[in-house]
Write a structure and sequence with these properties.
With 238 residues, the chain is of the alpha+beta class. It has a single domain, classed as 2-Layer Sandwich (Ribosomal Protein S5, domain 2), CATH 3.30.230. The protein is 31% helix and 29% strand. Strand 2 (26-32) and strand 3 form a beta hairpin. Helix 2 crosses helix 4 (125-146) and helix 4 (125-146) runs parallel beside helix 6 (211-235). 41% of the residues are buried. Phosphate binds at residues 86, 124-126. Residues 10-140, 158-223 form the Exoribonuclease phosphorolytic domain. One of its GO terms (molecular function) is tRNA nucleotidyltransferase activity.
Length: 238
């Protein structure tokens, strides 16, 4: 029934390759099916002015899509002189999602920036960015702890994200682009590994949905998050 031939509750193949760049304190290439995102983490001994002197750390994110990450070339946002609304919304989502898994007191007064660059897009780029972004963050924090710059691990729990939706009248897990573009209901679910929810984005794209259908999608998301967390922990050697 699904264009890919997957079962309703089946994820795309997931792989996470770490240490893919030379200079970043943490990096990975996450591949969820044909969606590929490069995630890098940069540590800086500074924080935004609004929290300076508070003793709290900060995690933020930037997101972008390469011109040929999609079927036709997109103009670079730098060429237009500003970021699009979608880009701003996604990078804010990535930042606040990752912060929900961080003890900012234990992190100390420093900033970690997660850069997410979409190399190839086939649906679910924001979910892949959050999931891969946590891996890059984990690797960067590991370096801080190894150097003795922080004593207590500030990462409370892995953070991962997955899309679910209603496609052809059926609830499905991990939408690829053909499904995402035709889904009657589309949702993104960001959770911690301990089961705590960070954010749920659901919208009727052509059909309304019931409470029961929402619960079905939440159950699918729980399954998908569990598989993603397993891949994250394997990637970082935990």
């Amino acid at each position: 029934m699904r264009p890919s031939g997957r079962q309703l509750n089946e994820m795309r193949s997931v792989s996470i390759e770490t240490d893919v760049t030379k200079h970043a304190e943490g990096s990975c290439m996450i591949r969820m099916g044909d969606t590929h995102v490069l995630c890098t983490a940069t540590i800086e001994d500074r924080v935004p002015p609004f929290i300076k002197g508070s003793g709290l750390g900060w995690v933020t994110a930037e997101y972008g899509m390469l011109p040929r990450s999609t079927s036709s070339r997109m103009r670079r946002e730098a060429a237009t002189g500003k970021q699009g609304g979608r880009t701003v919304e996604i990078q804010r989502l990535i930042g606040r999602s990752l912060r929900a898994g961080v003890d900012r007191v234990a992190m100390g007064e420093r900033q970690i920036t997660i850069d997410c660059d979409v190399i190839q897009a086939d649906g679910g780029t924001r979910c892949a960015s959050i999931t891969g972004g946590w891996v890059a963050l984990r690797l960067a924090v590991n370096k801080l702890m190894k150097a003795g710059d922080i004593v207590t691990d500030p990462l409370i729990s892995p953070v991962a994200a997955v899309s679910c939706g209603i496609y052809a009248g059926q609830p499905v897990l991990d939408l690829d682009y053909p499904e995402d573009s035709e889904a009657g209901v589309d949702g993104n679910f960001i959770l911690r590994a301990d089961g705590q929810m960070i954010e749920v984005q659901m919208s009727a794209e052509g059909a309304t949905f019931s409470r029961a259908q929402m619960n079905e999608l939440l159950d699918l998301a729980d399954k998908g998050i569990g598989e993603l967390v397993e891949a994250q922990l394997k990637a970082v050697g935990a």
